[in-house]
């Protein structure tokens, strides 16, 4: 497996953000991680890249157990570029004083690669993510939201990572740009990249993911093939998500059924 998370616990003070979370992503596979705001999705992602320290469990990236990594070892791993994180807000994740090209090539320059070779690679990736080469000389503030998102994806891919974490990568995009972005993410599977696609939108994830993991109040309550999750979900929270997605909801999933599921969720100890 390119990524394995096993029995992960994370605490923020007295708050138990993750409880025994486990998932895996194989090379060339896309796994969707679904849950509402505050369910622990970004916490899990940040634990994978060393931005959050777990209190229990294990994280393995490309066969390398990184659970106990601290400071220098994490910095060395990040320089190698085995795992890359595409943050939800592309504007805040890009240096406003660097041009698009400078942002994209920065990971290679940190590795000590020649600037000319890095620039050539940046142009290749710009074309791959459908970013006009003329935009490479611009600053992030001069780009649209969709263009900035493509810059962050190009920057993540330039090190040829084994694992890419996409945190709400299409939430800020218009409908047409969202469709193009999802098609591009599908193409990444052919390169053998393992994708962890994080979203609150089951409709977007269902069309791209091979498997889906459902996170509810810090616990992964259901995992399975995307088709099974959409058509035969077992956990009431998953069924509520499916029923709330207009493009996925069947005629039988009416308001009365959703209210019944909310009531059931309350009985098992969580807010509806």
Description:
The chain has 272 residues and is an alpha/beta fold. The chain has a single domain (3-231), classed as P-loop containing nucleotide triphosphate hydrolases (Rossmann fold, 3-Layer(aba) Sandwich), CATH 3.40.50.300. It has helices at 41-48, 71-80, 90-93, 100-110, 115-128, 145-157, 175-188, 202-206, 226-231, 236-244, 255-267, and strands at 3-12, 15-25, 30-34, 56-61, 64-65, 83-86, 163-167, 194-199, 211-216, 219-225. The strands form two sheets. The chain has a six-stranded mixed beta sheet with strand order 6-7-8-3-9-10, sandwiched between helices. Strands 2-1-4-5 form a four-stranded antiparallel beta sheet, covered by helices on one side. The two termini are 35 Å apart.
Protein structure class? alpha/beta
Number of helix segments? 11
Globally, the shape reads: globular
Please state how the strands of the largest beta sheet are arranged side by side: 6-7-8-3-9-10
Give a short synopsis of this structure.
It contains 11 helices and 10 strands. It has helices spanning 41-48, 71-80, 90-93, 100-110, 115-128, 145-157, 175-188, 202-206, 226-231, 236-244, 255-267; strands at 3-12, 15-25, 30-34, 56-61, 64-65, 83-86, 163-167, 194-199, 211-216, 219-225. The protein is globular.
List keywords for this structure.
single chain, 272 residues, alpha/beta, Rossmann fold, six-stranded mixed sheet, four-stranded antiparallel sheet, 11 helices, 39% helix, transport
């Amino acid at each position: 497996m390119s990524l394995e998370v096993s029995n992960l616990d994370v605490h923020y003070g007295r708050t138990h953000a993750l409880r025994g979370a486990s998932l895996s992503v194989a090379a060339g596979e896309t796994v969707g991680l679904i849950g509402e705001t505050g369910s622990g999705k970004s916490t899990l992602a940040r634990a994978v890249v060393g931005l959050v320290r777990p209190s229990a469990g294990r994280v393995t990236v490309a066969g390398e157990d990184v659970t106990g990594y601290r400071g220098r070892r994490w910095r060395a791993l990040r320089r190698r570029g085995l795992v890359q994180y595409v943050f939800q807000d592309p504007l805040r994740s890009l240096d406003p004083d660097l041009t698009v090209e400078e942002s994209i090539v920065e990971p290679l320059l940190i590795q000590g690669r020649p600037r000319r070779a890095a620039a050539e690679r940046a142009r290749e990736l710009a074309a791959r993510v459908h970013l006009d080469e003329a935009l490479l000389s611009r600053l992030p503030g001069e780009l649209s939201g969709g263009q900035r998102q493509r810059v962050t994806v190009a920057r993540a891919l330039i090190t040829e990572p084994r694992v890419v974490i996409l945190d709400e990568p299409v939430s800020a995009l218009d409908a047409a740009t969202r469709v193009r972005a999802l098609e591009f993410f599908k193409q990444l599977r052919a390169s053998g990249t393992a994708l962890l696609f994080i979203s609150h939108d089951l409709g977007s994830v269902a069309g791209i993911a091979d498997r889906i993991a459902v996170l509810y109040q810090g616990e992964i309550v259901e995992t399975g093939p995307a088709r099974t999750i959409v058509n035969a979900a077992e956990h009431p929270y998953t069924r509520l998500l499916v029923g709330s997605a207009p493009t996925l909801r069947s005629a039988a999933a009416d308001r009365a059924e959703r209210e019944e599921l909310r009531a059931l969720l309350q009985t098992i100890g969580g807010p509806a």
